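Ticket #4471: structure output looks truncated?

Reporter: J.K.
Steps to reproduce: submitted the chain below (97 residues) through the standard prediction queue, then opened the result file.
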Amino acid sequence: MRLNIALCDDERSQNGWTAAAVAEWAALHGHLVTVTPFETAEAFWFAYGEDQSFDILLLDIELRRPDGPEAMNGVELARKLRGAGAALQIIFVSGYE
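Returned output as attached by the reporter:
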């Protein structure tokens, strides 16, 4: 199976760790994956508007909020995606208990 996965987390080290875990899982199960990292909800939202080929979004709940009226955290991004009819699977990830 081929999966196109987006990873949205504002922590670069967490993006790297999660991408490595996904690659390990894919190799173990014989899947081909492409993991594309995003550091803000806005960056993903903009990219998704241009390319809706993502199958899965691994989404941090608490994203750093850049200044501006369109600043979103992970939950707000998920709501916006569902409101726009996005069909990709959303998996929330968090470093908090």
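Triage note (M.O.): checked the attachment and the full token line is present. The radius of gyration is 13 Å.
Status: closed, working as intended.
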